[in-house]
Amino acid sequence: MFNSTSTASLVSRLVLQAAAAMIVVWSLAPFLWQVSTAFQEDRLLTAATPSFLPWPGTLEHFRNIFVEKQFHLYVVNSLIVAGATALLCLTIGAFAAFALSRLRIASRFGILGLFLSVSMFPQIAIVGPLYLVASNFGLMNTYTALIIIYLAMGLPLVIWVLFGYFETIPREIDEAAIIDGAEPLRLLVSVIVPMSLPGFVTTGLLAFIMAWNEFMFALAFTSGVERQTIPVGIANFTNLYYVPWGDIAAASVVVTLPLVTMVLIFQRYIVEGLTQGAVKE
Amino acid sequence: MALRSTLETDETAAFGESGEKRGWASRLAPLLFLTPASVAILAVSVYPILDGVWLSLRNTLLSTQADEFVGFSNYATLWQDDLFWSAWQHTLVFTAASTVLETLIGLGMALVLYEPFRGRGIVRAAMLVPWAIPTVVTSKMFGWLFDGQHGVINWLFLKAGLISDYVNWYGSPDTAFRSIVIADVWKTAPFMALLLLAGLQTIPRSLIEAARIDGAGPFAVFYYVRLPMLLPTLLIAGMFRALDAFRIFDLVYVLTGGGPADSTEVLSTLTYKTLFSGLDFGYGSTLSGAMFLTEALLAAGFGLFIVRRMRRAQD
Question: What is the model's pLDDT at position B88?
């Protein structure tokens, strides 16, 4: 009834499914644990036996972070900073990527390589000097300082990925537009941008996530809830004597759920964008 | 690399043809379009790097407003600074450990995801979750998982008989370091898997089929067909990962703050504290300069190794 080939393929299929299940559990378990923690009463969190199901559930931790710790202010700060970063990255990055892809420029790959290599510097090496500049210009504790820094951090990747998208648009389309009398700006706005919208979604999202998650510059350049972003807020939750794990978990959920949702919706584009350039032949 | 395909189109810049269609807008456009990005990138990276070198030659204390040129004396201090050398060592050990583990686990994940099976899309989506979560949140998540009193890891390990009593994972030097590596591997291995999966997909399936028909088992196929063809991707992804791991900051700063007893202090956290707790911008810049130099050497070493390896593979 069983010949050896079908047994072997059955075994290998089972091994594969088991490995796949392990990957899912490994990737999701810590996060799901955090979600569950957010809904558990402190009494349950300190019980001798940890429970996975938040029963009886409570919204107390969410009330704590929003009412006592003004977490919504951090959320607003993060939305402003990350949103502005993403929009600026897309606008400025599109112009640069377009110039590198379509205009006459000496050593375009030299410039692309320079942009990319600049982004490899350790950020700790620039935080000190930038801090001094920001204080001299009165930019401490402002959105502006963070947005400028995140813009520069996000641009290399945005330019690189958009450049890759632009390169896939056939030149015949450009030529048709040029014959119709299009100048560079018109070509970019009316032809190239509409044709590479998926690229804009990916790169905008990547820039947004980068700015949303950044910690070190936000920590160094802001003070107080009126300008601090979410990561700084969460890092500061702990006080000396007691770690409010439930509140931290609630904040984690608030920060992460929108991100995870967006990533899952756009995952195909993101995977494409992230791996582009890295391994494309 | 994308380089080759794009080089071929180098001659076809839409507004590049001489003569026709060269209005003022076309001639000025490259400059106008590239300037904002270039200014932003240069102002926020090249200028501060140069300024950092200048600061490292000075004694600049924000606390006392001191600011004087001291030559290489900061570097002399650095040479004898035990804390710097231990942080340097921790950083290198962390970089090596996390890069090797992430590459191996990422490769395993990529090999699984390469095969067609039901629910592959779900697995791929699930893998993106750790990558999307802010590192600060990851730090707090693992802080809670490994908590010494109520952490679920303690409970699980105790039930499984792996430990006989609750362990304060982040409270003792050796376990704290390992727990940080685990948190980093969790966060980054999936990303490695995506890169390697993309690399695997460029290997022609016919090659693998041919090897299978010739009687090669899964391990032979992996060792003789896939591994050699995946090597360039593996090396380059490994290099990027290593350079990234070398800069680790958030995870350590939030999870252990460099403790206990400086056992998890890495170059980034040491530099950050020198700058913003000590307000010592001169010595802080010296520390970041040393870090920068190590990273540059690391990058050059990797680059050279990869180039050699590729040459040898081509011969």
Answer: 96
Which token pair is B99? 């890069």
Mean pLDDT of chain A: 88
Task: Using CA coordinates, name the residue in chain B closest to A245.
Answer: B144
A134-153 residues touching B, CB cutoff 8 A = 148-149, 151-153
Cα B68 to Cα B55, B279, B281: the distances in Å are 10, 15, 12
CA distance A17 to chain B (A): 8
Query: Which amino acid, residue A92?
Result: I
- What is the length of chain A? 281
CA–CA distance, B13 with B35 (Å, rounded to integer) = 19
From chain B, the residues in CB contact with A53 under 8 A are none
- Flag whether pLDDT at B1 surpasses 60: no
B213 touches chain A (CB under 8 A): no
Six-digit token pair at A210? 């980068």
Residue position matching structure tokens 């700084």: A232
pTM passes above 0.95: no
Residue B126: its chain A contacts at CB < 8 A?
A: 23-24, 27-28
User: What mean pLDDT value characterizes chain B?
Assistant: 88
CB spacing of B40 vs A119 below 8 angstroms: no
Chain center to CA of A24: 21
Helix (H, G, I), strand (E, B) or coil at B59: strand
Q: Which of B47, B135, B295 sits opposite A213 (nearest CB)?
A: B135
Q: How many interchain CB pairs under 8 A, A with B?
A: 311
Structure tokens at B61: 């204390």
| Residues in chain B closer than 8 A to A167 (CB atoms) | 2, 5-6, 9
**CA A267, A269, A275, A281 torsion-angle sign:** positive
pLDDT band at A280 (very low <50, low <70, confident <90, very high): very low
Other Cβ atoms closer than 10 A to A207: 27
In chain A, what residues touch B63 (CB-CB under 8 Å)?
none
What is the structure's pLDDT at A116? 83
Scan residues 219-238 of B and list those with Cβ closer than 8 Å to A: 233, 236-237
Cβ contact, residue pair B41, A156, below 8 Å? yes
Contacts of B147 in chain A (CB under 8 A): 243, 245
Residue B81 tokens, joined: 């600074």
The candidate with the shortest Cα–Cα distance to B235, out of B304, B291, B295, is B304
Per-residue pLDDT, averaged over B83-101, amounts to 97
Buried b (16+ CB within 10 A) or exposed e, B94-118: bbebbbebbbebbbbbbbbbbeeee
Terminal-to-terminal C-alpha distance of chain A: 46
**Mean predicted confidence (pLDDT) in B60-72:** 89
Question: B302 near B236, Cβ under 8 Å?
Answer: no
**What pLDDT is stored for residue B11 in this prediction?**
44
